[in-house]
Task: structure prediction
Amino acid sequence: MRIRVNFEWPEDICYLGHVDFTRTVARGLRRTALPLKFTEGFNSRVKVEMGFPLSVGMLGEDEFFDFYLSEDVAIDKIKALLDTALDGIINVKRINEIPDNLPSITSLPAILTHFIYAELKEPLSEEALEKKLSAILEMSSIVVLRQKKGANVKKEVRPFIKDIKLLEINNTSVVFLFSSHFTSSGSIKIDEIEDILNENGIPVEFDYIVRKKTVVKYKGKYVSPFDLE
Result:
């Protein structure tokens, strides 16, 4: 029995790294006393498949993970046990049984949509901001430098930028909507978006980021990971 969990990643745990969060979820699952499946091998662990990782400090309102049971249990009972075991860690929004043969979430192309709350280092008009954002989207190539094994490596990230637009401006406080592509060839990091904005005439510092929505491409359509079948 494979269970998909849709949850919110709250501010209380936003500074946990992806690996530490996975361990925290696994410990919570153990507390449910459900008939969990474990990985094979000498160091057996709870079989958990996490969704797309969040950068440290980010919040998430549409996050996912899968886990497996060795026998059938009523969905309502599983939800109640998860709510108790993971209370204070995550907010479980909904759960569903999914087919065992579905691909893992992170093996599928995805579009990840974020709200970016930020402060301008110097005032810019709404018109000027929107013009600069449009200019970025019109670029055919955007290259960033990434650290890899102690060396700087150039990475083309323009294919991973789906959209970025201004949602709100209040003096120097701004909110951007940013959508990115996650593919087998890579993705773009949120701090790279901050650098790209600064390098293209938008002097800004990000306060916090909320991932609002996750959709994956499956059988030619973009759908919520919760709705795969």
Q: What stands out?
A: Residues 51 and 182 are 12 Å apart (CA to CA).
